Amino acid sequence: MRHSRKLDDTPCMRQLSDKESLVIHADLEPDDLNCLIVIRKFCQSFAPNGSGAWIDGFVTAEDTWGEKDGVRIAHRLMHVLQAMRSSRSSVFSFSSPTCPVCSQILTEHERRLITAIRSARQGRPERAGLQLLMLCEGNPTEDVMEQLKRLATVFSERDDSAPSERARPVAF
Question: In the Cβ-directed half-sphere of 38, how many Cα atoms lie within 13 Å?
Fold first, then answer.
């Protein structure tokens, strides 16, 4: 199920801010990019009128990493997001996955979260911790780090015969 960007046809006029970059310039690996897409869909479900977007996040994860691993990765990503949201004081800034303009913009918060996920997958907890410290605004990060470790375990155990490195999505 695809979600429409807006109810009207008004073109998006969003511009890059100083702390944002284009996704194509972020040097994301396929797993990073696909985590970003799933995270955005989950975040969209927290926004007004986005209640069903989390379902599309799970579908995207299954399409990307296969039925077994996709569900496990999406589940762990949701736990990472929930732990991060509980630790932060302010709103997590994310780009809409359904807007053709916004989906190409990587926010500072998204960049920090994806860097933390990549660092955890690479066995670099100190780098992940630094990103989490900034992302969680100096608040406790132990629960987020624990969730990142669990996510990294799923990535390390996944079935390599399942589809895992699909081409960059058309949205980017």
Answer: 30
First to last CA, the chain: 19
Is 88 within 8 Å of 152 (Cβ atoms)?
no
Question: Alpha carbon of 148 to those of 49, 58, 95, 172: distances in Å?
Answer: 28, 18, 21, 25
Q: Which residues contact 89 (CB under 8 A, 6 or more apart)?
A: 137, 139
Look up residue 4 and give its two tokens: 């429409």
pTM of the predicted model as reported, rounded to 2 decimal places = 0.85
Partners of 105 in beta bridges: 22
d(CA 144, CA 146): 5
C-alpha to C-alpha distance for 150 and 172, rounded to whole angstroms: 28
Going by C-alpha positions, the residue among 159, 165, 153, 2 that lies closest to residue 67 is 159
| pLDDT tens-digit readout, 111-158 | 999 999 999 999 999 999 999 999 999 999 999 999 999 999 999 998
How many Å apart are CA 36 and CA 16, to the nearest integer? 18
pLDDT digits (tens, 9 = 90+) for 52-90: 889 999 999 999 999 999 999 999 999 999 999 999 999
Distance from C-alpha of 41 to C-alpha of 106, rounded to nearest angstrom: 14
